[in-house]
Recover the amino acids of this structure.
């Protein structure tokens, strides 16, 4: 039996329902349970969840009320799963705010967990027992993937490229960010930087030393003069970001001596295709750049931020050094093939989507994820 917290969208709920059907049935919770009675871990869990919540409360009263709500939710979730130890807890995303506490309550009660999320490739989803994105269970040792592929030509080949067959740029929700043809960019030497949504959990949790999208822009402005002569950094805002970063970007262009350029019009993947490398905190566009055989530079935490796959950068001096070496940036094609074939064959379950937008998971992949979740908790 799988207990999941309702996602309130057809895609999310149909996916989790499909997983639950493989796992022996579903208990669907429309709200997170509440309880006043606390646990020794309650305060620490609440403070951490509050620090990474997408919507930060304003003022002392707002923070107090938010803390009370989170405390009730953690206590209620943990107490619920203590009463139902025979289940697996599942949640969409589950790494920030209230949903984080729902999953931590389950884990602290000794119940296996499954985290669901969109995957960076069409026709796939994330389903992982430890978390999503940088919190997932993917090994962080490049040697693991080389060993997994050793002696298996199918794991060393180009089969993974089919994952990118239907990649398209995200439809923009903003009038000032478009997806027009960028075919005329091929003759320019630039590193492409696709900005991320500033309050996305990828930023609030995993941005590392740059801390925020705004601060990354400042760091790029300072580092851009280290680029070879004739090179520039080309930046595009995220098409789903609700707030424009135009002011910060315009300041950065001036500070950089115009080594930064803003291009909100050209198609995202046209810019990837024309670039000499892609630089990101941890956007999936950095991973998708592999399909175009581009070097990638990561500034934050990401499940693909492995040396050889990409160039991880951990500070402003390392960023300046990396940009100064822009003409010679590269990657390990053998490691990339092994890693991407692993994502294809093992890590991201196949899903089918019907005409109504309902998602159904591949049964064998779901079974493997459920078994891994139970095994991780010794069940």
């Amino acid at each position: 039996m799988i207990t999941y917290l309702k996602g309130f969208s057809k895609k999310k709920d149909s996916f989790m329902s499909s997983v639950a059907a493989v796992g022996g049935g579903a208990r669907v919770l429309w709200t997170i349970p509440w309880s006043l009675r606390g646990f020794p871990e309650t305060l620490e869990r609440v403070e951490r969840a509050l620090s990474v919540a997408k919507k930060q409360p304003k003022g002392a009263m707002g923070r107090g009320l938010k803390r009370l709500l989170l405390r009730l939710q953690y206590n209620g979730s943990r107490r619920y799963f203590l009463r139902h130890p025979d289940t697996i807890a599942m949640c969409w995303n589950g790494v920030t705010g209230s949903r984080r506490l729902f999953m931590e309550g389950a884990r602290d009660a000794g119940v296996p967990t499954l985290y669901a999320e969109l995957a960076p490739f069409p026709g796939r989803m994330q389903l992982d027992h430890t978390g999503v994105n940088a919190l997932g269970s993917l090994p962080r040792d490049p040697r693991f993937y080389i060993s997994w592929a050793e002696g298996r030509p199918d794991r060393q080949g180009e089969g993974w490229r089919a994952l990118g067959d239907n990649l398209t740029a995200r439809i923009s929700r903003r009038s000032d960010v478009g997806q027009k043809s960028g075919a005329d960019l091929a003759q320019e030497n630039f590193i492409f930087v696709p900005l991320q949504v500033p309050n996305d959990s990828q930023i609030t949790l995993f941005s590392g030393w740059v801390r925020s999208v705004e601060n990354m822009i400042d760091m790029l402005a300072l580092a851009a003069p280290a680029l070879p002569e004739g090179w520039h950094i080309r930046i595009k805002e995220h098409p789903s970001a609700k707030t424009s970063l135009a002011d910060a970007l315009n300041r950065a262009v001036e500070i950089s001596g115009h080594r930064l350029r803003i291009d909100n019009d050209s198609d995202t993947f046209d810019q990837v295709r024309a670039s000499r490398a892609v630089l990101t905190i941890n956007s999936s566009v950095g991973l998708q750049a592999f399909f175009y055989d581009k070097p990638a530079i990561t500034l934050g935490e990401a499940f693909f931020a492995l040396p050889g796959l990409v160039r991880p950068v951990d500070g402003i001096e390392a960023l300046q050094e990396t940009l100064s070496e822009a003409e010679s940036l590269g990657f390990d094609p053998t490691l990339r093939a092994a890693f991407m074939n692993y994502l294809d064959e093992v890590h991201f379950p196949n899903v089918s989507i019907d005409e109504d937008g309902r998602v159904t998971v591949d049964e064998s992949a779901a079974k493997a994820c459920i078994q891994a979740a139970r095994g991780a908790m010794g069940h």
The chain has two domains: 2-119+348-376, 142-342. The chain has a mean pLDDT of 95. The radius of gyration is 22 Å. Residues 59-83 form the longest helix (25 residues).
